[in-house]
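Standup notes, structure subgroup. Blocker cleared on the nicotinamide-adenine-dinucleotide input:
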Amino acid sequence: MLTYKMLIDGQWADAALGETFETRNPYTGDVWAAIPKGTKEDAERAVEAAHKAFTSGTWPKLTASDRGHLLRRLGDLIAENAERLARIEVTDNGKLINEMLFQLKYIPQWYHYFGGLADKIEGAVIPIDKPETFNYTRNEPLGVCVGITPWNSPLLLLSYKLAPALAAGNTFVAKPSEFTSASTLEFAKLVEQAGFPPGVFNVVTGFGADVGETLTTHKHVAKIAFTGSEGTGRKIGELAARNFKKVTLELGGKSPHIVFADAEIDNAVNGVISGIFAATGQTCIAGSRLLVESKIHDQVLEKVIALAKTARMGDPLSTSTQVGPVTTPPQLEKILGYIDIAKGEGAECLLGGARPSNSELGNGWFVEPTIFAGVRNSMRIAQEEVFGPVLAVIPFDTEEEAIHIANDTNYGLAAGFWTQDMRRMLRVSAAIQAGTVWVNTYRTISYMSPLGGYKHSGIGRENGMASIQNYLQTKSVMISTAESVANPFIMR
Ligand code: NAD
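Run returned:
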């Protein structure tokens, strides 16, 4: 069993109280690593270290080009270590090695892209309407930024925050999920190796109510970038608002995936299956509501079920596995609970609906790919985020009705639809209330394109050039060039 330490102020440390907690492998159920159980004291130490690194030492003196260079070096180190980091994430969260390897090989792009942006942060000279006044703006870093991440894609979701934060000149404290802390601690070794000064990047492991809330409320924290559930996001937003801290919140979803009758059906079916069963449904962008035009409803459903039946469940470290376990025992219970709720609401379970009986799956936390038909959009199974391999199928008759159902939810993270009609592509994309809309594809994400939620799915956008503004604040400087200053008591 491995025993990890946290990185605070350039030192590898145990928790102040010396306690640890266990992290378990979702496929075997075995404990494989001990993680320091940080508390308030550790979180405060990390923020103070980040504050010191922001205000003194070498980091604030580096040129923007030097910062960019460090980020690009970090990107290269991630690429060199991609396979090792991917295996750690799979061991911790049970997602498929194919997917995590793809993610880890892609993550360096965030550091190359934002590293390239570091020395393109510019101000403006404004010809303001006051004579003899020279006015210019500076875009300055905020200070200490905190990144709080969930368990489904720990390093990808950290990179959405860390790369722009460091490019802008901030310092950072990361708090990974208590279920998947190991990869962030391994990643911290690469940050050190890349040559970032001590205290610029710190990791505190521990639980949300303790470490998370201390980080959210500490007076030296300027910004919290959070990805996780709606409930935690609300709490963080409330706490941050009390002290006027800036926040980016990337929360949950109940994304509609619409198949119109004019779609290329086989392509749509592939998209629908990948939209819900990839990562065993544990993605915020999961296309968990399948809206199908009535005239093709039975045909699409038949094909979706047939394809879902072929999914091979097994060891997520094996490249031939297609559906892995879910990440945590509470998540397993939550998914099974929603399956019961859906049955109780009268939805018809056409596939799955239970833990698999296959003995080869051993002690893994598996749930069968599950499909419910006959769902009404008002049902809980259509309104609440399950975060598991559960698809709710809802028929519709007209484009207007499809848009109405798609938007009739508190969430608005993502949506997808399948059609061959160009006018419909533009019409429906505009009408859907979601931060990302995919047409004839699903789940495409890029470091260059903004990602974030409408409505309860969050506040702000990550990725893309504009996201660096989340980590900057603008100062307006006015310099008088006048020879004399008028007596203020003599009105002009
Ligand atoms: P969660 O909200 O339970 O936990 C996320 C993180 O918040 C963890 O690190 C946790 O320790 C911390 N936390 C918990 N309570 C806290 C508190 N009071 N103060 C500060 N921090 C606290 O979420 P989860 O179960 O780990 O992740 C699943 C959720 O994440 C789903 O709702 C999913 O939709 C969402 N998610 C969203 C996106 C996105 O980009 N929008 C991406 C992935 C996951």
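Discussed briefly. Residues 148-152, 157, 175, 177-178, 207-209, 212-213, 216, 227-229, 232, 235-236, 250-253, 284, 385, 387, 413, 458 surround nicotinamide-adenine-dinucleotide (CB under 6 Å).
Next: hand off to the docking folks.
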